[in-house]
Design goal:
By secondary structure, this protein is of the alpha/beta class. It has eleven helices and 49 strands. Among the domains are: 108 residues, Leucine-rich repeat, LRR (right-handed beta-alpha superhelix); 292 residues, Ribonuclease Inhibitor (Leucine-rich repeat, LRR (right-handed beta-alpha superhelix)). The N and C termini lie far apart (78 Å). Bound molecules: 2-acetamido-2-deoxy-beta-D-glucopyranose (NAG) (12 copies). One 2-acetamido-2-deoxy-beta-D-glucopyranose (NAG) binds next to loops. It is a single-pass type I membrane protein.
Length: 772
């Protein structure tokens, strides 16, 4: 009797107890294995992050799931249930998994925290599967691609304290039932598609500390009784469609640290009691219809770290109550009517990001500004600052973004600028700076725009290999095209137009960056012929060599400019794409065109694939290979000495919107193939020796301005109401055609300016976008 007992006791101790008391429940292990199985077998292998593969490797069928990576069990018996799952970033951005993959996990009813963020999960939240999670305290499903609305079952999770659904595609109205999650401390619904109003039931969530609704399409007035949420420390409502004013009950939120309500339609006065909130650190009010109606007597009790009063109607001097805001990191007073000078006390505050663009500030910059060890971004564009750039500039050891464009700065740029080792972005465009441009510290530069100044001397060229944009247009640079440019291996945009660059276009031009998309050498003094090798620049979309003294034939290799053959329709502005790609570095930046954010949306402008060789002395036949460039939108060969026929192949330029062949020696008939181009809306064939009938097509028939065909050798057609009969000769045109010609061409020259110079010179930067 005793032996079997001993034996069974032995077995019980050695095998049974560990199974029951110290390892996770069998069904929970099965659920986890099922999840692993779904994840690893239903999606392509390269859709799992390497780290996830390593971690999931520990999920072995016959082991204790409490020992697995990413899993945490309750410390105590009787059975060690799974309580935490940290399953974030298993599936990379490029992958995708269905939300049904969550179902096995949601059967683990002992869960206390569940984090499945950053997993490219698609589909609706499987609401029904949540019903048994009665102990859940923290649920993070952020940064996926979940859609639909919030399922009602989520509101039965009464224990929930943290809910993060941000960065998904969840929409509709926020349901009233949200008010039943009375334990909520942190509610994060930002960057989704929520619309409509906010249910008044949220005012029942009195334990809320973080309430984040930013970047949705919500339209409501901030409720008067928002002050009931006494424990609120963070309220992010920015980037919605809120209206109404700032309710005074916000004064009751004594714990409030972060308040951002930027970019809404809020109106009314900015109450100064806001600055009496002692704990307030971050305050973003910009981008509303709010007005600053204050005489300057602000007794700030708060010690702000970030303040945005962008477009808040601030007038007069930079308010001097900011003097005791000694903890300021970011100060954004963009787009106001501030005037007067840059105060010295402000320069001494050691602020990290100063954004004062679009005001009326004037005078010179205090030298001590650059002695700050904190200054990282200085954006002063579109003011009326003047004087020299202070010699101290080289002492700003931390500055990365220096934007002084569109002011009145003059004199030379101090050589000490070479001592700024962290400089990434330098925009000095549209000032009156002169002299030679000094050397810059060549490592880490990313964007250099010194266009529209009076710089002279040899074209500066030692910028390291980093820059993606280099614009030195509209200066007096001279000398030859520098060989050092071939070191700029990341270059996307090179604009040297309107300078005095001389010599030939060198053959090493073929060795410029293979990512070069824009090359403008317009209006210089270049001579010689166009090198064959230019066709090696296979990313080029804009090539402008016009207004030089180029001679010889147009190389037929131009027909090999790949990016002009297939330029992906609908792709975005290259620099913007680039910025998105390197988003870790540049997330605080956005390019604005023409002072408005619209430019980003209107990125198609950039797709103006363009070849311009006009106003040179090129001769010979136009190579038929140009007809390969199917994505070309604008082709200007005017004011040269081209002869022979217009190539039949031009009919293949199906996207061509503008064609200027005027002022050449072209002869023969206008090819009938041109009638295939459906989008052609600007055409100039005047001042050649063309003959015969104008081809007919709905598009060509609309181009009926006689100037298009003027001064040729007898062109006829219904478009210009010259009947094609036996008589060949036409009445001679009058001399003042030139003016009209300028007018017709104006529209697409403007388009070019829009695409290339527009965003070169009108750069604005959003600093601290995600926080303000
Ligand atoms: C993933 O890789 C494993 C082994 O390398 C293979 O057995 C499995 O079929 C692959 N799965 C898919 C979806 O390609
Ligand atoms: C919830 O628990 C009940 C009882 O254990 C079970 O019958 C039901 O299937 C569970 N529901 C889900 C969605 O897991
Ligand atoms: C919510 O999720 C986002 C994205 O994953 C994250 O950045 C944020 O810190 C989270 N917020 C809270 C309050 O947990
Ligand atoms: C706003 O949310 C949308 C969609 O969720 C996202 O694509 C976008 O990047 C967000 N914008 C910002 C500025 O956070
Ligand atoms: C919210 O968006 C949905 C579509 O996503 C739409 O049907 C509904 O009318 C919108 N509601 C409001 C109040 O705009
Ligand atoms: C606010 O927070 C404090 C401290 O965490 C807590 O004692 C208090 O109960 C909270 N107030 C409400 C209304 O939940
Ligand atoms: C306020 O914002 C800052 C910066 O984003 C953050 O570090 C801090 O935790 C926030 N405060 C609260 C109470 O969430
Ligand atoms: C700032 O100065 C005002 C008086 O001008 C004073 O009342 C307030 O306490 C000061 N605030 C801080 C944060 O020092
Ligand atoms: C800019 O400042 C200069 C003096 O430096 C002044 O002559 C000019 O009128 C100002 N321009 C504007 C628009 O205020
Ligand atoms: C750069 O800094 C060094 C050391 O601080 C100094 O000696 C040098 O003169 C500076 N260079 C320029 C051009 O100001
Ligand atoms: C053009 O590129 C090819 C291949 O990259 C290279 O072999 C050739 O030498 C280049 N041509 C010129 C003129 O640089
Ligand atoms: C264009 O490229 C093709 C192959 O890429 C080559 O065979 C051809 O010679 C090139 N044409 C010209 C004109 O350079």
């Amino acid at each position: 009797m005793q032996k079997p007992c001993l034996l069974s006791c032995f077995f019980f101790v050695v095998f049974f107890i560990p199974q029951i008391s110290f390892s996770c429940p069998h069904d929970q292990r099965q659920s986890l294995l099922e999840f692993k199985n779904l994840l690893t077998h239903n999606i392509a292998n390269d859709s799992i992050t390497d780290q996830a593969l390593r971690d999931l490797e520990t999920w072995k069928p016959n082991s204790d799931c409490c020992e697995w990576e990413l899993v945490r069990c309750a410390a105590r018996s009787p059975s060690r249930e799974v309580i935490d799952l940290s399953l974030f970033n298993l599936v990379p951005q490029s992958g995708s998994v269905s939300s049904s993959i969550l179902r096995p996990l949601l059967r683990i009813s002992s869960l206390v925290t569940l984090d499945v963020s950053l997993n490219s999960i698609e589909g609706e939240i499987p609401g029904d599967a949540f019903v048994n999670l009665t102990r859940l305290i923290s649920l993070d499903m952020s940064s996926n691609r979940l859609k639909g609305s919030i399922p009602p079952e989520l509101f039965s999770l009464k224990t929930l304290q943290h809910l993060n659904l941000s960065w998904n595609l969840i929409g509709g109205e926020i349901p009233t039932e949200i008010g039943s999650l009375v334990e909520l401390r942190r509610l994060t619904l930002s960057s989704n598609k929520f619309n409509g109003s906010i249910p008044s039931s949220v005012l029942k969530l009195t334990k809320l500390e973080t309430f984040d609704l930013m970047n949705n399409s919500l339209s409501f007035e901030i409720p008067d009784s928002i002050g009931n949420l006494v424990n609120l420390s963070t309220l992010y409502l920015n980037m919605n469609k809120l209206s109404g004013g700032i309710p005074s009950s916000i004064q009751n939120l004594k714990n409030l640290q972060n308040l951002t309500i930027e970019d809404n339609g809020l109106s009314g006065e900015i109450p100064t009691w806001l600055f009496g909130l002692q704990k307030l650190k971050i305050l973003g009010l910009g981008g509303n219809k709010l007005q600053w109606n204050n005489d300057g007597s602000v007794f700030a009790q708060s010690k702000l770290t970030q303040l945005s009063l962008r477009s808040c109607g601030l007038a007069g001097n930079i308010p001097d109550w900011l003097k005791n805001q000694t903890a300021l990191n970011i100060l954004d007073l963009r787009m106001n009517r501030l005037e007067g000078s840059f105060p010295k006390w402000l320069a001494d505050l050691e602020i990290r990001e100063i954004v004062f663009s679009d005001n009326r500030l004037s005078g010179s910059l205090p030298p001590s500004l650059f002695q700050s060890q904190s200054l990282n971004a200085l954006v002063l564009s579109r003011n009326n600052f003047s004087g020299q750039i202070p010699e101290t500039i080289g002492q700003s050891s931390d500055i990365e973004f220096l934007v002084l464009s569109e002011n009145n700065f003059s004199g030379s740029v101090p050589k000490s600028i070479a001592n700024i080792t962290r400089l990434k972005l330098l925009d000095l465009s549209k000032n009156r700076l002169s002299g030679e441009f000094p050397r810059l510290y060549p490592y880490g530069l990313w964007w250099i725009d010194i266009s529209f100044n009076e710089f002279s001397g040899d074209v500066p060229a030692s910028f390291g290999s980093g820059p993606i944009l280099l614009s030195m247009s509209h200066n007096n640079f001279s000398g030859e095209f520098p060989q050092d440019f071939i070191n700029l291996s990341s270059l996307v945009h090179l604009d040297l137009q309107h300078n005095n660059i001389s010599g030939n276009i060198p053959s090493f031009i073929s060795r410029l960056s293979s990512s070069l998309e824009v090359l403008s050498l317009r209006n210089n003094s270049l001579k010689g012929s166009i090198p064959e090798g230019i066709s090696n620049l296979t990313s080029l979309k804009v090539l402008d060599l016009s207004e030089n003294n180029l001679v010889g034939y147009l190389p037929s290799s131009l027909g090999n400019l790949t990016a002009m053959i297939e330029s992906p329709e609908g792709s975005c502005l290259p620099l913007v794409c680039y910025m998105a790609r390197v988003n870790i570095e540049l997330q605080d930046l956005a390019v604005n065109w023409k002072k408005s954010k619209q430019g980003l949306v209107n990125r198609n402008l950039y797709l103006y694939t363009l070849l311009d060789f006009s106003k040179n002395k090129l001769l010979g036949e136009i190579p038929a290979s140009l007809g390969n460039l199917k994505s070309l939108k604008l082709l200007n060969l005017s004011n040269n000495d081209f002869s022979g026929l217009i190539p039949q192949s031009f009919g293949n330029l199906e996207k061509l919107e503008g064609l200027d062949l005027s002022h050449n020696n072209l002869s023969g008939e206008i090819p009938k193939t041109l009638s295939k181009i459906n989008v052609l809306n600007t055409l100039d064939l005047s001042n050649n020796k063309l003959t015969g009938r104008i081809p007919q097509s709905p598009q060509l028939d609309r181009l009926n301005n006689p100037n298009i065909y003027a001064n040729n050798n007898g062109i006829c057609g219904m478009q210009i109401q010259v009947p094609c009969s036996s008589t060949e000769t036409e009445p001679p045109e009058e001399e003042d055609e030139e003016k009209n010609e300028e007018e017709t061409m104006f529209s697409w020259k403007a388009a070019f300016i829009g695409c290339s110079c527009g965003f070169l010179t009108a750069v604005a930067y959003r600093i601290g976008y995600s926080n303000l």
